[in-house]
Design brief:
The protein has 363 residues and is of the alpha/beta class. 34% of the residues lie in helices and 12% in strands. The chain starts with a helix and ends in a 25-residue tail after the last helix.
Amino acid sequence: MNHADQHADNRDKSRSTKTTTRGVASNPVNRFEAIQVEPDPDWYDEDESPLQTQFIRDHSQSIISYNDSPDLNFRASVNPYRGCEHGCVYCYARPTHEYAGMSAGLDFESKILIKLEAPELLRKELSARKWKPQMIAMSGGTDCYQPVERKLRITRRCLEVLAEARNPVGIITKNALVTRDIDLLSQLNEHKAAAVFISLTTLDTDLRKIMEPRTSPPKARLDAIRKLADAGIPTGVMIAPAIPALNEPEIPALLDAAAQAGARHAALVPLRLPFGVAPMFEQWLDDHFPARKEKILNRIKEMRDGKMNDSTFGSRMTGHGVHAEQMRGIFEVSCRKVGINQENLELSTDSFRRPERDQLMLI
């Protein structure tokens, strides 16, 4: 971080007096809804009224989702939860809550749809003859190890089905709770069918509290990498999102810390701000980093063809332009320096076996 950014950071911290356990402070209008409900300011105090998380049962009749994006290395994914209590302000999945008639703002992180039948649905779909064995991504949408997983254990029960079927799974999470399931991941790894990527965005605990209020602290995530690697499970680190002029300068330090903890793979994804996420992010900068707001936004626009977001396949996950190339160059040089991404990571479907359908529970 240069002196100018350091001074701006100090000004930001002195001006940012908001303390919250939520990523955003409001519920923007759902772009599909004509009616908006607004709290009465005479009785509602945003800073004092405690917002309790609600858990709503999701009665989906299928659990494996498919995509045809050329930017992703998987087609199939399982998301036990819709919405995410982690509260990351920049989360690209926020707009998906609008399809459920809710807001991408506070609703996304405080009204969580839970798929209690996910393990049974997964067993049914893996048992079907039409299932073609392939890697299933968990957390392709929202984090499968968000706080309520500790109690509900939906992700763990899905892993039990995957372990029985020996179907490969790739997990991405910001929560150290993933280490609870090392036993199942080890079973899958015996058949080259498991890999875990820990999302690590900063080593600054104060910044983490602002960016990702209900996630595991940096030290806990590094400890999770260490435990997974010690268990022999292929482990990597996701630097996602890399936010220009905010956590971007930490890329070399993040990769070094991850490598020392045992990570052997890494990926980088610049910040994406689809639909209503962009204005929420701008408001968040006003609240927490006003002195650096314009610099951050200008860098984002440099990488997104003058816009706040670019959904074009081929560039949405990488950005383009000089600054995007510089970011990627720093990432690649740092990976080589610490010995990350020196080997291919390939999962196998060779040991797949269809699970017994007669174990399907009544749902």
